[in-house]
Structure formats: C-alpha cells, structure tokens
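Entry 12.
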Amino acid sequence: MTWDPVTTTNFVLCIVILALGKWAYVKKKNDVPLYIGIAFGLFAVSHLMTLLGLAAGLTVFLIIIRIIAYLLVVFALYRILAKK
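Predicted 3D structure (tokens):
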C-alpha cells in the first residue's frame, strides 16, 4: 500500500460525502443526496483500489466504476431539474 496524499485526501472526502448523502436522505427523504452519496462512494472505491496498489491491473474496471459514478451524479442533477 502506497501513501499518496492527494489520493488519500480524495478517498477521505468521498467517504465524508457518502456519509452526508446517506444522512441527508434519512433526514429529508429526498433521494437526490443518496444518489450523489453513492456516486462518491464509488469514487471512494476507485481511490481505495489505487491506494492499495490494485489500480494498474484493474484499469477497465475502474473506468466502469467512475463512469457509473458520473452517470449517477448526472441522474441526480436531472432529478433536481425535472422537479421544476
């Protein structure tokens, strides 16, 4: 496991956003923060795999994880725009 301060910071912040998204969902019963939280949870998985030194062998898998995460954010934003 290598310690990269940028990837470690990104990992920690993604976990914080995941927790806040879940908390906001529980408090407000709005699914948009949950989708955003899940997306950042997927980003956290990607960062963790990088920190553990597994990223080089799983490039395609990491790209798929990140694409799904970005699509979840797009979907969440669409949900906000569609309500108006």
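Annotation: Residues 5-82 form one domain. The chain has one domain: 5-82.
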